[in-house]
Amino acid sequence: MFSFNTFARCFLATLLCVLLGNAPVLANSGEPSTPQTDHAYTLMQLTDLTLSNNPQTQLAWAEIRSSQAGVELARAGYWPLITANYNITRSRTVNFSGASNNAQTRYSPSISLSYLLWDFGSRSGNLDAAKFALTAAELSNSQTIQDVILSVEQDYYQVLGLQSLVQADEESVKDSETSLDAARQNQKAGLATVGDVYLAEAALAGAQLSLQQSQGQLAVARGGLAVAVGFSADTRLELAPWNQKINAQMPSANISTLLAQARAARPELLASKASEQKAIATLEATQGTGLPSLTLDASAGQTRTVSGGVSQAADNYSAGLTLSIPLFAGFGDQAASRQARAAVDISQQTTAELVQSVELEVWQAYQNLYTAKVSLATTDAQMKSAQQALDVAMARYHIGLDPILTLLAAQSTLASARAQQVQSRLNWFTAQAALGHAVGGLNAPTDITESP
User: Fold this and answer.
1) What are phi and psi of 191, to 5 degrees?
2) What are the distances in angstroms from CA 5 to CA 9, 19, 188, 309?
3) Shortest CA distance to 137 belongs to which of 60, 84, 78, 30?
4) Residue 306 φ/ψ, nearest 5 degrees
5) Cα 68 to the center of its chain, rounded Å
6) Domains assigned to the chain
């Protein structure tokens, strides 16, 4: 005969197997990757390191795991609630004369079941809301990854740009030193005064100051890149140089196509739409809480009484259906429904506002890319002309045809042209990355060398 004790043991064993079999196992994240200081990293390699080390990506994955647990929690509403109880009672009766009868010990194991059979969409609404929350978390994770990649790209290009600027300032220092030597030679030859030497020395000091400032900015940028990748700020990462010959091409798609692509593919926008659907599902669940529900309740137990060495047992079973019809809850149900409906309106307007923000970001990134494209040719031409002007001014100053001011002006123009050429290259690469991020997809630029 299948007794209550046997049933209870089988139930508990099955429950433990289910719980242990479905228990999530969390993988060890491990220590961050150790940087190779003697290796020149490309952008793709730094991106791979970032996705492994950056805390923002780890946080995004943790949020996904939390949302996955939320889905399982919502599904629990479709399962019965089973509770096992075990009561032990010890009693003794004492009469007025002080005499007492034998003590009784009562053992009462029992198991009960409560199963919600039917409601008006409260469970399904909660489950749908949890699923949409998981979708939103996954899409937000994609957006977080893209944001992290964009941050690394910007820091990467910033370091490369400042490296080029330091090189340009070093060339300007050499030009200033050449001008100072020319001023001293002309002074000895009687073609210049000591004032020319002073002006050349001041120009050299100015070029050295610009070099020191750019070197300081480079050190700051290197620290920012190291932190963005996931290392300490004092980690020095050697970078592969960028290609000196840039093939500047605008995207084949026009701006209207890019705007449509952003609306369809931007993870941040898709996550907002998923949150909107979550709010709608939550409204359905909230409305269902104020409607009738049907619940099955069942229990089985055994009461064993031991008195005076005599043991007696009695089994008891019960089952029933309960129809719950909420009549009045202090207008709380109506208030909860209005609050949930307002949340739907908020999420819809948030999505609409985000669409406008995304479209503006795409538009600005496209225009910035076009401006950077046309600036490349302009700064190259400016650089060529400034170099020729300095060569002519230097030759004329050597033979005493031009004053020192003309030479220093040409020298200053060339230094400015070098800096503007570096900035135009930096603007091109960062504009490429910004446009790719704005439309919802990051493509690896083809203008960066993949080997040192």
Assistant:
1) -95, -5
2) 6, 21, 115, 22
3) 60
4) -115, 120
5) 18
6) 38-79+122-177+206-291+337-438 (1.20.1600.10)
Report the alpha-carbon distance of residue 103 to residue 282 in Å, rounded.
56
Which class for 96: exposed (0-12), middle (13-18), buried (19 or more C-beta within 10 A)? exposed
Instruction: Cite the beta strand spans of 262-309 per DSSP E.
Output: 293-307
Question: Nearest CA to 320 among 112, 78, 108?
Answer: 112
Q: What is the pLDDT of residues 26-69, one digit of tens each?
A: 333 444 556 665 678 888 888 888 888 878 888 888 888 888 89
DSSP 8-state code for residue 105: E
> Under DSSP, is residue 247 helix (H, G, I), strand (E, B) or coil?
coil
The model carries a pTM of 0.73
**Size of the chain, expressed as the number of residues it contains:** 452
SS3 assignment, position 195: helix
pLDDT at 140: 86
- 83 in Cβ contact with 111 (< 8 Å): yes
134 CA to centre of own chain: 15
Tens-digit pLDDT profile for residues 324-365: 888 887 888 889 889 999 999 999 999 999 999 999 999 999
What pLDDT sits at residue 353? 94
CA angle 143/148/149 to nearest 5° reads 95
Burial of 344 (0-12, 13-18, 19+ CB in 10 A): middle
Identity of the amino acid at 290: G
**For 61-87, how does the pLDDT look when each residue is reduced to its tens digit (9 = 90+)?**
888 888 889 999 889 988 999 999 999
Question: 332-398 vs 404-438: helix axis angle to the nearest 10?
Answer: 150
Say how far apart CA 122 and CA 322 lie, in whole Å: 17
User: Which amino acid is it at 135?
Assistant: T
Q: How far is CA 364 from CA 250, 259, 426, 438, in A?
A: 14, 11, 17, 9
- Please give the pLDDT value at position 6: 35
β-strand partners of 296: 115, 321
